[in-house]
Design brief:
- InterPro entries: NAD(P)-bd_dom_sf, SDR_fam.
- This is SDR family NAD(P)-dependent oxidoreductase.
- About 40% of the residues lie in helices and about 20% in strands.
- Helix 4 links the parallel strand 4 and strand 5.
- Helix 1 packs across helix 6, helix 3 packs parallel to helix 4 and helix 4 runs parallel beside helix 5.
């Protein structure tokens, strides 16, 4: 049977790679983005795979928009089997430069958005045969970064939420995983001096799919990914 997957926060980089991988594996993928036009071409591309893609506009910080988005998912694709909380935000500023609105925006996109999307998706998984929820993290989720207070705070919060949900929902057959992206992701269509210093988004997506396919006897809670030349 095909799975219904929701990727919340689809951009041209890793979000698109995740959607492509899941669709190739036969998933019907809901592409949540702020504007529908930004993911229309990707949705069309996915129609040529074993799965499909449906562009759905949603501001993940808005409870009403998230609710409406998941109603469309149910109507057009069915119950949710997989959720990838990929949206994040944060100004690259330190304590004295960061204003309250910027801080609250970072917390709204990551932790609040992840909470709203999970709350909308998990009931389907509880009623069915379980499911998978994946959170995209960063180095800043485990080690605060100077000059990135809002981003670091939001990523720490997302990691805590993922760990709490894993302990709460695991016994009900729902696999919750947090992925630490430890390094820069290769930007699409951009030449870089040394590609070896970057994570390939398509290869990251392979690891996300592995999390979906893991047997319940050996689930991963946290997976960290980095290029081989990264020092850690």
């Amino acid at each position: 049977m095909s799975r219904t997957a929701v990727v919340a926060g689809v951009g041209p980089g890793l979000g698109a790679s995740i959607a492509r991988k899941f669709a190739r594996e036969g998933c019907d993928v809901a592409l949540l983005a702020r504007t529908e036009s930004s993911v229309e071409a990707l949705a069309t591309e996915l129609e040529a795979t074993a799965g499909s893609g449906v562009p759905i506009p949603a501001d993940v910080t808005d409870p009403g928009e998230v609710e409406a988005a998941f109603e469309r998912v149910h109507d057009e694709l069915g119950p949710v089997d997989v959720l990838v909380n990929h949206a994040s935000g944060g100004s690259w500023k330190g304590l004295l430069e960061l204003d309250v609105d910027e801080f609250e925006s970072a917390m709204a996109v990551g932790p609040r958005g992840g909470f709203l999307c999970a709350r909308a998706a998990v009931p389907d998984m509880l009623e069915g045969d379980g499911g998978t929820v994946i959170f995209t993290g960063a180095t800043s989720a485990v080690r605060g970064r100077g000059g990135a207070l809002g981003f670091s705070a939001a990523k720490f919060a997302v990691r805590g939420m993922a760990e709490s949900m894993a302990r709460e929902l695991g016994p009900d057959g729902i696999h919750v995983a947090h992925v630490v992206i430890d390094g820069q992701i290769l930007p699409p269509g951009t030449d870089v001096d040394d590609p070896a210093e970057y994570l390939d988004p398509d290869e990251i997506a392979e690891s996300y799919w592995h999390l979906v396919e893991q047997d319940r006897s050996s689930w991963t809670l946290e997976l960290d990914l980095r290029p081989h030349v990264e020092s850690f």
